[in-house]
Amino acid sequence: MKVFALFPLLLLLGASCNLYKEVEMVEMIDMKVTEWSGENVRAEVYLQLKNPNWYKVRLTRSHVQLYLDGKEIGVVELSEALDIPPRSVTTHTMQLHADYEDIENVIGNMLNLLFKQKYVLEGKGYVRGRAFFIARKVPVAFREDLTREDIGVGK
User: Fold this and answer.
1) Each residue's pLDDT tens digit, 116-147
2) 90: Cα within 13 Å, side-chain hemisphere
3) Taking CA 28 as the corner, what is the angle to CA 70 and CA 112, rounded to the nearest 5 degrees?
4) Which of 20, 44, 62, 146 could be a cystine partner for 119, CB 3.0 to 4.6 Å?
């Protein structure tokens, strides 16, 4: 009789590896600069995230370094915890913080910015999330090709 009582527990433990699927970043929808002062740059980054799980996932912390053409431009962080509904694709806002010097180093002078046709945006870091009582730190890495129109320079 004890064998039958242990069977569901063993089944649950064996299947637990398949119970959690990673939350995916589908795409970066938009980026809006909210502050451009002499000291720093702040922007809102709109990301589309997919939760393939049958339960909600809460993102509690993120730290993703952003690079434009291989040069560091800032950090994307969560301003508050995000709840991603079960089996959904939703758009969420994250905050980008950058020092003006970092942006200036990437862009160089205005002529260089105007004549360059394509840029490469990369992100590397982590996102920490929680579902039920289990917390995970998930590495994040992405690369996206941008045009001058994507960053708001010319047509």
Assistant:
1) 778 788 889 988 888 888 888 888 888 888 77
2) 15
3) 40
4) 146
Quick one: CA dihedral 61, 67, 70, 72, positive or negative?
negative
Q: Which residues pair with 121 in a beta bridge?
A: 68, 144
Token duo for residue 45: 């980054």
Domain residue spans of the chain = 2-147
CA–CA gap between residue 137 and residue 61 (Å, rounded): 9
State the residue for tokens 């690079």. Answer: 67
Among 23, 18, 26, which Cα is nearest to 86's? Answer: 23
Cα–Cα distance between 31 and 93 in angstroms, integer? 9
Q: In sequence order, which residues have a C-beta less than 8 Å from that of residue 78 and are 6 or more positions away? A: 59, 60, 61, 62, 94, 95
Q: Which of 153, 155, 146 is nearest to 28 (CA)?
A: 146
The per-residue pLDDT for range 43-68, each reduced to its tens digit, is 888 888 899 999 999 989 888 898 87
pTM: 0.69
Question: Could you give the CA distance from residue 14 to residue 130 in angstroms, rounded to a whole number?
Answer: 20
Token representation of residue 103: 């942006």
| CATH class of segment(s) 2-147 | mainly beta
